[in-house]
């Protein structure tokens, strides 16, 4: 049985990786899927704060069970980044890692220190273990997020086991704002990286917009979105906005996207 390693990735910080990872982990677990969760942004990153298992008094449990909570580590630290590979010893079909911004260099260091060949070693390891890897690229109106996708595409050109999904963050972004990814109407600017990704068999989905106030309250709740949407201390209008966000997110997980993520129907 081929398993899937998922990473939320961008060389650019603040593009919505953790928001996406939290929504994905929430949606899949709510549907009964086992997804092991990992937060690669240090001891208490955003994903472990939202999805980490807690004691009865609200403190994060230590250690975390990845199948129920989220295991923290630091992809930038040479002594701990190996967890990205060591996690594959479990029997989980799907493992989700929310990587820190700018983690591409750390990925290259997993099997060497040459950026030109680092991901080839990763690809060979995935092949040895019969694991597919899908890199979930967060793309927003910042041109740097598009440049990041191009960098990953460059380094994974010879890789057989590594695929790509572009996640278009719709927060405060109109179509015109996304010109670097979608291209301008006259075809003169942008769009080239998107063409490369699609030509390589990559796919696209959206991270739906969530009202700023609802997003802030959901994140402050230090709980999955599905749990925050039921918190009675949140105004009803905000709870409904979170629920509608989750419905819209679930709709983005088409059968084709689910197959790419390794989560089936």
Break the fold down into its secondary structure elements and pairings.
Blueprint: E1 3-9, H1 17-30, E2 36-40, H2 46-51, E3 70-72, H3 83-86, E4 94-99, H4 104-108, H5 118-129, E5 131-139, H6 143-155, E6 162-169, H7 179-182, H8 192-199, E7 203-207, H9 212-220, H10 225-228, H11 236-252, H12 255-261
Parallel strand pairs: 1-4, 1-5, 2-3, 2-4, 5-6, 6-7
Helix pairs in contact: 6-8, 9-11
Question: Order of strands across the biggest sheet?
Answer: 3-2-4-1-5-6-7
Tell me the fraction of residues in β-strands, as a range: 15-25%
Structural class: alpha/beta
Number of strands: 7
Rg estimate, integer Å: 18 Å
Question: At CATH's second level, what is the architecture?
Answer: 3-Layer(aba) Sandwich
Write the CATH fold name. Rossmann fold
Q: Under the CATH scheme, which class?
A: Alpha Beta
Query: How far is the N terminus from the C terminus?
Result: 16 Å
Please give the domain count: 1
Total DSSP helices = 12
Major sheet, described briefly? 7 strands, parallel
**What is the arithmetic mean of pLDDT?**
94
The best one-word shape is: globular
Q: Which residues sit in consecutive blocks of at least 5 with pLDDT less than 50?
A: none
Classify the helix fraction into a percent range: 25-40%
N-to-C SSE string, H for helix and E for strand? EHEHEHEHHEHEHHEHHHH
